[in-house]
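Researcher: Sequence recovery benchmark, item below. Answer with residues only.
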């Protein structure tokens, strides 16, 4: 058997510690790199901002100034002369959102009502836009535009979230609270 000197043991221990340190740093670097991946960042739901908060965008600010929930009416509340096809029924709520886009850049920025969606329930299923006060347009430098957007959702007690898709593809969320259930007026 060969005797191993104290220096050799110390060198081996130092080399082992060095290799473990490099390996640990490589794993940390991998985790940080994966966590900052645009693909994975887009897959993670972002935190929702409150109504009234000015949220930074690539061109300035988006803010949901106000939201209103307008519960549908039942057929006994609709007069015989009224066309009830355009009225949300008792099982639905109209979600009316007032939002402002502010261009704080020196360039013209395009916008569209298609950049806005309502997401309903825990699974955040998209709800189609039922009305918009604006059409596709451009926002001049240092100006803003106010938008009124409406959506119709089920009165199921679920949470609703407003979504704005920024020019770089980033999704900005605003928590609009919950809708009520029929009979809970």
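Model:
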């Amino acid at each position: 058997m060969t005797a191993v000197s104290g220096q050799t043991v110390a060198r081996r221990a130092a080399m082992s510690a060095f290799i473990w340190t490099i390996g640990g740093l490589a794993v940390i670097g991998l985790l940080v790199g994966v966590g900052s991946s645009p693909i994975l960042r887009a897959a993670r739901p972002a935190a929702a901002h409150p109504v009234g908060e000015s949220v930074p965008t690539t061109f300035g600010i988006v803010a949901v100034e106000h939201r209103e929930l307008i519960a549908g009416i039942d057929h006994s509340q609709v007069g015989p002369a009224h066309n009830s096809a355009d009225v949300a029924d008792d099982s639905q709520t109209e979600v009316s959102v007032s939002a402002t886009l502010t261009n704080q850049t020196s360039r013209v920025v395009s916008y569209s009502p298609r950049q806005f969606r309502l997401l309903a329930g825990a699974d955040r299923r998209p709800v189609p836009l039922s009305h918009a006060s604006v059409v596709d347009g451009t926002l001049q430098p240092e100006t803003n535009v106010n938008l009124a957007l409406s959506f119709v959702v089920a009165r199921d007690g679920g949470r609703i979230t407003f979504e704005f898709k920024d020019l770089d593809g980033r999704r900005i969320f605003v928590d609009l609270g919950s809708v009520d259930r029929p009979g809970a007026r």
